[in-house]
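Input chain follows. Return structure tokens only.
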Amino acid sequence: MNHQRVFNSRSLAPALILGVALLAAGVALAGTPGVTPSSADGTPIAYEVFGSGEPTIILVHGWSCDSRYWREQVAPLAAGHRVVTVDLAGHGHSGSGREVYGLPAFGQDVQSVADAVGGDRFVLVGHSMGALVVTEAARLMPGRVLGLIAVDALHDLDYVVTEEQAAGMIDPLAADFSAACFQFAGSMIRPETDADLAAWIQADMASAPARVAVSAMRQYMAHWLSGTVPALFEDLPLPVVGVYADLWPVNIEANRRHMHSFEAEVLEGTDHFLMLGAADEFNPALEKALESLIP
């Protein structure tokens, strides 16, 4: 299905950056855009397809981000694989008619894209909140997913979130989303990160739809509060590989107790948006993780 991309203030400059990067790398200037007939609840989900070759790699963004956050990875990955970038519901160019933006529905978004592009060999890559989204998607795609790659996410499946911690995350966003999100994004960026990139990330995330973002954060924190996150992995027979910044510790032993298998690589001196700010270090680590999941 053809889809005309409509650029707005959130997307124009990064989209041009992506096009220039792909052209320089010898990849087609633009991917093949599409919109799924609908996710499970009827929400149209936008995606783009680049390159060819198995397995297909689906890249899923994090909270209040969109597919543009993978702009440094598309060209290298598309040199040998079919690469699919996705805008989850309420993000980017996808529909935003939901009342609640929860992880199971986001997982259905990814499944709908996998069904739309076709194929039975996928690696799902999720950044931040996107790591739990691809976990939900994998549970809906038995026999089709080779493994999961978590990008600075799933640091400790045994971590206990308190009501106070959850409220401390959600309440400021609900009260003044733009200001709170700007500060929150900044807390995950190192001072030495390129100043223009840091400013773009903060401004871009802070311009996301507040209704969507607050709902998604409530649902995300509810998973940790309920203690159900480890159970998502305990009956999922898939390997997980994590590529991490060194802002927060990774509890490898705890993750291995719940996951089929788990390996991690930590990149020193990077921050939560390492796929943008440290692409030269991140891309080889991502390729290494991908190779470890391909039989």
